[in-house]
Structures are given as structure tokens and as C-alpha cells.
Write a structure and sequence with these properties.
The structure holds three protein chains of three kinds. Chain B is mainly α. Chain B is 75% helix and 0% strand. In chain C, α4 crosses α5 and α16 runs parallel beside α17. In chain C, the strands form four sheets. Chain C has a six-stranded mixed β-sheet with strand order 6-7-8-3-9-10. The chains are: A mainly alpha, B mainly alpha, C alpha/beta.
Chain lengths: 372, 341, 551
Amino acid sequence: MTTPTHSYPGPAGGPGGGDPAGGPGGADPGAPDLLGPGQPRDMDEPPKGGSFLGYLLRKLGGALTSMILVVVLGFFAFRMLPGDPVLKIAKERPMSPAQIAELRSQYGLDKPVIVQFWDYLVGIFTGDLGESYVYRKPVSALIVDYLGPTLLLTATAAVIAIGLGLWLGQLSAWRRNSLFDKVASSTSLVFWSVPTFWLGLILLMIFGGTLQWLPTGGMITPGLDPWSFAGIIDVIKHLILPVITMVAVVYAQFLMVMRASLIEEMSEDYLTTARAKGLTEDEVRKKHAVPNALLPTVTVVFMHIGGLIAGAVTVEAVFSWPGLGKLTFEAISGPDLPLLQGTFVVFSAIIIVMNLAADIVYRFLDPRVRRA
Amino acid sequence: MSDKPTTAEANASAPNAGTTPNATTAEANASASNATTASARQTPVIDGAKLVRERRLNNAKKNWSLFRSDIPALVGAIVLVFFILIAIFAPLIAPASMLDVTKQLDVPRYAPPSFAHPLGTDDLGRELWIRILWGARVSILVGVAATVMSMVIGTVMGLAAGHFGGFFGAIVMRIIDFFIVLPSLLLAIVLSSVLERGVFTIVVAIGLTSWASTARIVRSQTLSVESRLYIERARILGAGHRHILFKHMLPAVMPLVLANTTLTVGSAIIAESTLSFLGLGDTSKESWGTILKNSMDISAATSGYWWYVLTPGIAILLVVLAFTMVGRAFEAIINPALRSR
Amino acid sequence: MTDLSFDKVSITYRSASARGDVVAVSDISLDLPTGATLGIAGESGSGKSTLIMSVLRLLPKSAQIDGQVRLGGNDIKDLSFGEIRAVRWAQASIVFQGALHSLNPVREVGGQIIEALEHHAKGTWTNPAKRRDRMFELLREVDLDPSKAVAYPHELSGGQKQRIMIAMALACEPDIIIADEPTTALDVIVQKQILQGLAKLVAERGISLLMISHDLAVLSAVCENLAIMRFGKLVEYGPSDRVCLDPAEDYTKQLAGAFPQIGDPESRMNPRTLKPAEVRRAEPFTKTSEVVLEAKNLNVSFDTRQGRERAVRNVNLALHKAEILAVVGQSGSGKTTLARSLLGLQEVDPGSQMEFAGKALPRKAKALRTFRRQVQMILQDPSGSLNPKRSVYEAVVEGLRVQKITDDEYARVVGALEAAELTPAADYLESIPQELSGGQRQRVVIAGALALDPQVLIADEPVASLDASVRGEILSLFLALKKNLGMSALIITHDLGLAWNIADTVAVMKKGEIVEYGDVDTVLANPQHAYTQELLAAVPRLGSQSLVRNE
């Protein structure tokens, strides 16, 4: 987790920790020589940036490296670190020697490490992530079943948190030190200082327990068809509390970052130029300050996508939301190491893909050549 | 040499003087000795060491008055002192035997807060206030220890990525990127579920996975210092990596790291409670996360035992908020540009 | 048409902090009748920027204006916010420093020009097509290709950005143009083009021009009248020829004296300053024929996106003992790369030969360290060259400690500071850089180099970031170091006047090549290469609106 107060990048920051984000205008291939005939080329004119393809390849390469690291980490963390994963399981639940031997061969632990690693790699590429100890089902099948609800929950929360955070943040910055700013800033500090799961428990206690306005867990009342009108309403009802929990903790960070970067922008010279041209204050803010302040903010928002998705683990545990997070929670309590390994790899893959998408979107938002 | 700055002064001025307390004192001594021995044979006598000491003292005074004018930070500092004191003196205030379930048979279970039971009791008849007291020990200890670990890794990685270019720098940058993209919670879950349960595991799990944002900040500061002319000047004078890293870079990033430390302790405490809540903590030790985990296990939230859920969370909120407030004040002292915010 | 007049204007920044109110401008009265050109000169902190920003009421709320700023007869204080918005750009527009951040970095520059037209349609540019046409017309007027309309600021050079700023200022046909340091940070040749272009456009349209700058020569090259400001007060005012060539006030004399007149024998080997450095030797060192540092066939290439680019091409240079050699060129000419190569800080192409005292430059880290005792470099910006957290003593001693010279450290430090004329040295030892002035900081940097007893000093633009009045002091110090210690110096500069002031020889660089190389007296008096001639012609001369008239 990063703190909201200082993690905004400087104006030279790029996405993903400030990679050289390639050059501008590369999206239009074969841009004509912009100089008219007979006009001498200005030698000081900065060179044109690299192509979009180069940028894309670089980012793809980065994502691929991260993915390889995840896969390798997945193997070493779950097969190597625990010593003998079967003994680890055996320690937590009573098992006969025969059961232990069976598990051993099931995990392939009787083979040499390098063979195990190869089997593991082949398994990942063929979608075989092993069998869950608790569910007695293939891990990949479980993950497919639980993926949808997680995506629904995190996507809804992300959209609301980003919208709310950025909008409140720019209002706060523009009306710096007003009552609105003080209330907005201090509320977000409080939300930021609260563990996600605890906020969930409190909401559950008030709206699910005491007031009984909303359901306390699950995604849909059993027996309802999720695609019927009543079913959709029911799902939305179940969605409200988990989404509020996730949004409350995350929007605060976005608010602080947006506020800080807009304040940074507010002393820039080009705003004086805009004012001198006769623009109203609202125009100065909307047309000049906010578009510039958005860029550093967007990079921070992208950096927090992972944190938001990981927040699903505790929120789903609290609200029994049938997603990957709840699956992870159950794998921990098992302990069900194959399942945990599977959810870790899939969670990481989702996050890496989202980041890659974010990097590509960013390329279209910022025309500048950015070098960190 | 009786007039060398005391360590306390050096400490107090460290955030602004921009050196680690040790380095500050050491350097002050070095230059002070030169100046004083030399000024003895020089006329007129200019007491350089005194000038330095006065400047440090003035800095400390200025910083203290800045800090003091920040009411939330002052309140935060008081809250912190309170919690640290109760954590230290927990065994004196309420001996461990008061939490022994076998000795609490006459205490009612699930008693709501009252005069007899100030914060109520839990499902085993233990007083919640005593559990909170003892929980403070583990929660704050884990928070601080994990933060120290995270800061050390983050500073080293950030300095390495910012200072060294080429292949090595690129590799370090790639590793930092990986840890920025992947949320620390996910990695910490993996680590703590495969290692032996225990407080140490939690510290390692949090410390090993939460350093990336520090590394990022340190790296960008290092890059900005790296582009300063005085680094180029040091190279021209013939300085190597060690001189530049220890004499220029580290002092320049240290204030930032110190402020960041205060802010990160808060995050680490939240991370500890989250891991404990997920059942990855040390069940034999009280921590605020463990208390919440227990309350979740008996569905306290939906069963009306509100005090069981509320009190540990409020303790976390207070301590984290206090660390945040103090950290923000440190930040504002270091970076005057933030003060107007 | 609109007149602008300042009538007893005082501007105070009110502040709740302990420093209290700050008077930025006090009691200024100036007139700018229709079609006139007025320059305001002053060093940083003189209040000149505050004064001109008051014209369009662009000062922060904490600024309080006393007296009257009248625009077309109206006191701008009496205008409503709507009225002042209508005045902005339509009656008076501002040319900001385009090289800095005055253009929105994420919008196309054409759109930023059109934005001004949208707000002041004036019944002329009533629809988008007309505005577009007008924008292209403006770009042509400032000699920019219309295709630049879709460029973002970062895709343009400093000169091009400045042209965009001028096009933007002309957009709504204003009566007054206010130019705020329009050529700072630009090279002399680009500076000349911009100033000529601006002056011509203003003259053709009968627009009044109010220009501020720290550079007296730039102002006098364009403006009819000059005002000199210092500490918020008006020091001197009059026709620019009179103010520059026959100043009445001491301060003006000092400012004017800082700009050497190339060819003027009085300033040859004699930088004008009130505090000249002392020459202590009865027989000062003069240039010898003994070569200390030599580069033969030096080439340096960089890998860029466009492939390999040669920053330094086939350079041959020899620096003799007790010689001051000035390497002159515009930014991007490769002169800094050349200096770094001579220090072994820069990887050079195979085949390049660099020798110090007849031996090839070492390549190994350890040998290079020893070599650096002999050849030291002074960087451009003294404030940046000093770690703000380390005292003067620490800054000067750093080289000694790095080089592990441990004997008599204190004496060496004091000796170096005194050689750099920062006296009495003991008073400054424990000061931190923020407590020193720009000139004092540069002396500390020079002392840091001198502490190692080098034979050669390489200086990169040693006076470019200093106020005009300090420039002469530092230059005279270089001259004294040569005369007293027999030191050789290679000085990198964009300023031909510097070469005239102190150098024995001059090398003119263009695109990595030395195009002309020889004695200062010969080269500057009788330049052979077209580029040297162009550079010389672009140097603004004091008085007589030189750039406007000699076209």
C-alpha cells in the first residue's frame, strides 16, 4: 500500500514507475516532413519520438517478464519454500502415512526438482493448475467458476472509485483550504487509515445486521435466476455493501493524488498565459489545469489497480462474495496450497494484463515524450 | 571538543539537515575539530563549530515550531506516545494471567461495555480492553519492524536503480516495477502461508513485499540529485561510486525516507491486521488483527456483538491515523512546497 | 489606439508571515504612448515583472496596487472582471518566455492560438474556419511553417516556441504588446532573428512595445527608450542611446560596463569590474609554447533514435601553459562534450588521441583519479555545483579527501579559498551555500578545484548564470589565476565578449567542428569563416537600436 499524500509522481513520471514512455505522435505512421520546401530545418528542433510499435513491444516485454517472474515465484514459493508441502499440510490436519504417500505422488514430489518445474510449466500453459485438496476438483475449473463475480465486483468498484476520487480531488484542489476541501481531505485520510475488511465488517453490522436493509453475504438469493429482472436487482443489492467498502478505501488515495497534482499544476506559467488570453477561471481549470493534472494522477491510479484487485480477498471473505478472493481465503484456511497457487497466478495475471492495458491507454493520453 | 552538538540535537535537526543522525554527528565532529584546532592558531578567531551548532539548533527550533503549529500532527504524536506506553507497560497494567481463559470462568461472556467491563468481554469471557492492550504490543512491533525492513530494502533498491545505469540499473528497475505492479498484500499472503506461522514470518512477509513504493520515491529523488551539478563536480574531483552514494545520495534521500517511514508504519499495521484476519497470523499472540479474526469467526458483526468488532478497529484507526498525521507533518517540514497544502 | 501609463505605481505583496509586507515596486511613473517602444532593464528582484503583470491585473490576490495603471485612459482598478477579461489580449497581450512553460504542454500549439481568437472574436474571426485561416496567417507572419500548428510544445525548439508565443500575442491585433524576457535562454543567432521579427511586426502595425529584460544590450537593440529598475525603484530613464552610452547613474554604468564591446581595446584582457582580482607577481605569467593538454583528431559519437550522431568531429586543439583558450559556440555545438572528453568523463571514438603533458589520457578508473588532480573543471551553475547541505569547508575539502591528500588539509583549503579571492577565508568556512551570493558560490567552486593544485582549469560557461555585475569579478579572477599561478584554462562559452575580455586564443565550434581557431585579436577583428561573422553580427550592441536598424 502506498500513502496517498506523497506517492504522486513528479511531472516527469510515466506509467509503470516511469519507464521511458516513448515519443509522441508516433501513432500516425509516416508523418510527412513538416517543413515546407525552401525552409531551413531548425537544428534545435527536438527529434521525433519512437514508433507506437516499439512502445507496444517494450511494454509487452515488460509484462511478459513480470508474468515469468510470477510463474517462477509461484513454483518456488509453493514447492520449495515450505520444504515439503505435503508435510506442511499433514501438520495442520491429521493424515495417515498412506494418504501422505498418495499426496506425494499426486504432487509429483517424488520426481527431481527440474522435472517438477517442467511439469509445472507445462501444466500452466495447458491450463492444468493441479487439483484442489479441499474441493477435490481441478483448480482451473474452480477459478473459471469464481472469476466472473470477482471481475464484476472489482470493475464496478474501480469505475466508481476512480470517478469519485478524481472529481472530488480536482474540486478540493481548486477550492483549496475551503470547508469542502477540509472535509473531503480529512474524510479520505480517515478512510485511508482503516483496514478494508474492518470497514466491511462495520457496514455489514449496520446495514446487514442491525438495520437489515441489505443481504449479509453471497451474490444472489439461492433459487433466483440471475438473468431475470428480479435476479439482477437481487445481485445489485448484494453488490452494494462490498462495492462501498472497496470504493471507500481506494477513492481516498485517488482524491489525494488528484488534489496534489492539480495544486502542483496551479502555479504553472501556462495558466497565466491562459488567464492573460481572457479565459474565465472555470475555463482555465477545465481546459488547461485539469487535463495536465490528470496525467500524473492517471499513472498513480494505474499503479493502484493491483491493490484494488487484491482488496477483493478480504472484502469477498467478509461478504462471502463467491469470487477468487473468497477462494483465496478458503485456500488459506485449508490450507489448500494448489488452490492458493492457482489463485495467486491468476490474480497476478489479471493485474499484469490490466497494467499493460493501462500503459497503452496512457500512451494516447499524453503526447509528451516522457523520461523518468 | 566540549562544544560538539549533542546527539539529541543532531537527531532533532536530522530531517532538515538531511543527514542520518550518525553521519551528522560524525561529520560535525570532523569539521568541527578541523575548524577549532585551526582557529586556535588563527586570528581573528572564528568559532566555526559554534556557527554549525547554532545553525543546527536554529533548524531544530524552526522545525519544532513548524511541527507544533500543525495541530493534527501534535494530537497524532500524543496518541502515539499513549499507545506506545501502554504497549510497553501492558504486563504491568494487566498481567498475562488476566487473559488466561481458565481463570476467567466467573466473567460473563459477550458482556457489553459497562463500568465492570469497560470495553466489554469476548466469547471466552476475556476483557477486550486487556486484549487491546496486549494486542498493541504485537501490532506496533510488527508495524515498526516490517517498516524498518521495507525501508532498508527500498532505500538500497531505489539508490541502486537511480545511481547505476546500464544493464544492472535496468535489472533493478525491472524488479522494482514487478513489485509495484503486484500488490504487496497478494505477495504477503503467499509468503506467510508457505512459511512457519509466527510474528517473525509476518514481519518478513510485509517487509519483503512493501518496499517498492519507497524504492520508487528514493529512485526518483536519486535521479533528481544525480542530475545536479555537484554530483558531476564530485566525479570531476575524482570521486567513485562509494563517495557519491554515501556522501551525497544517502544524505539527500534520508529525510524523505524518514518521513516515509512514519507513513509506512501505518500501512504495515493495517497489513498485519489483514494477514491476521485472514488467519495467517500467530494465533498464540494477541494482535488487533487476531481479535478481529476471532470476532469474525463467531459472526460478531451480524450477531449484535458490536463492541467486539468496533474496539480493535478503532484502535487500528487511531494508531494509523496518528502515524499518518505525524508523517505528513514531517513531509511538510522537509518539503516546504507541500506546506501550503 | 491605446496608451499605457503608470502613474506613481507602488505594488506591495501583503503577507501574514513574519517577513511582513514586501514592497516589490515603489513609485514608478512611466508612459508608453501609441506606437512607442520602451524597455525596462533590471536584475532579478528589481520588480520589473511585477510591474508589467499589473497591466492586465494578473498579479496574485495578495498584491496591492497603489497609484494608477491606466490603459487607454481607464484605470485598470476600476474595470470589472468581465471588462478586464475583454481587455486582456484584445488591447494588450503578453509575449511570455516561450522557452519555459508558458505553453500548455498537452495541447497543440495551433489550438492554443485559436483559443485566444475564440475569446476575442471582434466580429472578424466569427467562425472556426476563419479562425483557422487567421492562425495559419499568423504562423506565416512569424516565419513558421503552417504544419507546425499540430505540433505539441515539446516537439518545438526554443526559438520556435518563442515564435508561437509572438504569433499568439499578435492574434487579436492588440494595441500593446508586452514582452517578458522574450529571448532569455535562446542562442544569439536565434535571439537576433526573434528580436528583428518582433521589432518589424510591431513597427509595421504601429503597436506599442513594452519589453523587459535583464540584458541591457538586448533592450537597447530594440527599444527607443529605456528605464532602469533596481529594488523596485526607477534608477534612470531616457532615450536608449543616452542611457547606454552616457549613463548618469553608477548602477547603470555598472550594468552597461558588463557588456564588452568586441573590438574595443579598453576591454581587451580587461573585464570591467569594481572589484578586480589582484595580480601579485612582479612578472605575470604569459602564454608559453609548452603544450599541456592536447586533442588530436577527436571524435565523439552518441547513439540516438536516428542512429549514430557525431557530437564532436575531427577536433584538434592544443592548450599551452598559461594560456586561456575560449571555445565559443551555440548550444548543441558539442562544446560541452568536448570539455568532458578532455577530462576523460566521456567515452570517445577509437582513433581519437588526447594527451596530457605529452602522455595519453589514462582510461582506468584509478589512473583517471590521479589525472584529475591535474585537470579540473568548473561547471556552469555555481548554485547547482555545491551540495546545499555541505559547508564551504566541506565543499572545498571534498577533492582533497577523494584524492586522499591528507597532509595539512586546513591550510590547503584556506589557501585555495584565498587564491579564489574569497577573503578572509576563515569567515566563510562554515557557511552553507544558501548564505552566499552567486559570485561567492562560484569562488567556492573555483577554490574546490584549486585545492588540488591543478595545472589546467576547464570552465563550462562560468559566468552565464551570474548577474551582470558579478560577471567581471569572476572573469578577472580567471585572468589573475593565469598571471599569478601560470595556470592554463579552457573556457566553454556562447559569449564572444568573454573571449574578448580574457582569452588568448579562441576556437569557434559549429555542429561539432571547429570552424575557426586562432588568436583572439586576429579571429575577432578579422573573422574568416561565415559562421564566425554571423555570430559576431548577432551579438547585440549597446545603444542605437542596432538589431532593428542594420538589417
